């Protein structure tokens, strides 16, 4: 396994900075036919897909007619693929999803956490805030799981069991999208308690190339929902929202916890997957902007909506500049 330096973080005073941290990882850029086009580090690096898996976890629901069965809006469908910020419109959307399937928040088994909205906008949560499972960033995905179970009369209480018919259908379908036997995919449990799978990074990139290039099928339905409603997939001041607003209807972007970023570019038929091996999300965002710049899809990112992640300053508690986060990833044509 050969990893590559992706991002450096410096510390200094005045005009002199010294490298303090180096974040290593790998990048794979793959076309819709599964051909590796560009890489850095080890494109076959095995990584858990985390929340980048969400569009593919929604495939059995969409292919089974769940959208029309429950009369879902496009925005509600986007929530099935979301790592949302727990903003009011996210919560309203998840409540609607649950109501349409005859469920409520007590059926959600994702747990709860403080909405990520507050960290994204740099605010403290209200002292009286009491998070519920609705606030969990994965509650939309779980609402979709419950809707699938309600449609087919499957047990609700065990919907996260890897042996549940829903999870078995997801595993098989994920395998087919990435070109592997689903039974061969290493299984783990995600932060929201749902089954999750590890994939070679280039297979994850290929999945996003196929999501972006899809036409007339369930993948294209999900792509359309995600790109039409990026605010539902992400949230205020979040990087996925900024990526998708850079190229409306063309770029689909999805982060995953512990340093995973995926992007699909419809006009190019390409998928990008990035893994920062130490899981550092700050480094991940800066690496992703640099990759897009090296591929020629972003010019002068500091003058775009991607500016917060292009070359972010490091500041201390007083607001004093102490360093910078700078990309050093170098893509190579394969």
Automatic annotation (TrEMBL):
GO terms, molecular function: hydrolase activity
Keywords: Hydrolase
Xref: InterPro entries: Asparaginase_II (IPR010349)
Keyword Hydrolase attached: yes
Organism superkingdom: Bacteria
Protein name (record): Asparagine amidohydrolase
UniProt organism field: Pandoraea terrae
């Amino acid at each position: 396994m050969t990893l590559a330096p992706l991002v450096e973080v410096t510390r200094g005073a005045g005009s002199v900075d010294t490298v303090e941290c180096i974040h290593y990882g790998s990048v794979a850029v793959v076309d819709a036919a599964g051909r590796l086009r560009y890489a850095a580090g080890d494109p076959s690096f095995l990584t858990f897909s985390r929340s980048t898996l969400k569009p593919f976890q929604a495939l059995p629901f969409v292919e089974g007619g769940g959208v029309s069965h429950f009369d879902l809006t496009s925005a509600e469908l986007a929530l099935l693929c979301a790592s949302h910020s727990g903003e009011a419109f996210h919560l309203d959307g998840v409540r609607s999803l649950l109501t349409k399937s005859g469920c409520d928040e007590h059926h959600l088994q994702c747990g709860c956490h403080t909405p990520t909205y507050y960290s994204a906008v740099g605010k403290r949560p209200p002292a009286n805030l009491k998070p519920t499972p609705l606030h969990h960033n994965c509650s939309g995905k779980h609402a979709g799981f419950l809707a699938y179970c309600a449609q087919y009369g499957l047990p609700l209480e065990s919907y996260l069991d890897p042996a549940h018919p829903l999870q078995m259908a997801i595993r098989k379908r994920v395998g087919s999208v990435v070109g592997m036997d689903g039974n061969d995919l290493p299984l783990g449990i995600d932060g929201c308690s749902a089954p999750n799978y590890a994939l070679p990074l280039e297979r994850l990139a290929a999945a996003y190339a196929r999501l972006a290039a899809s036409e007339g099928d369930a993948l294209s339905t999900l792509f359309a929902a995600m790109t039409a409603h990026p605010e539902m997939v992400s949230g205020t001041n979040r990087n996925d929202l900024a990526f998708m607003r850079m190229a409306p209807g063309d770029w689909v972007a999805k982060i995953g916890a512990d340093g995973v970023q995926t992007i699909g570019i419809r006009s190019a038929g390409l998928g990008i997957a990035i893994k920062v091996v130490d899981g550092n999300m700050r480094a991940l965002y800066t690496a992703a902007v640099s990759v897009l710049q090296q591929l020629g899809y972003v010019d002068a990112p500091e003058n775009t909506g991607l500016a917060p992640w292009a070359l972010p300053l490091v500041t201390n508690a007083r607001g004093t500049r102490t360093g910078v986060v700078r990309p050093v990833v170098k893509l190579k044509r394969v």
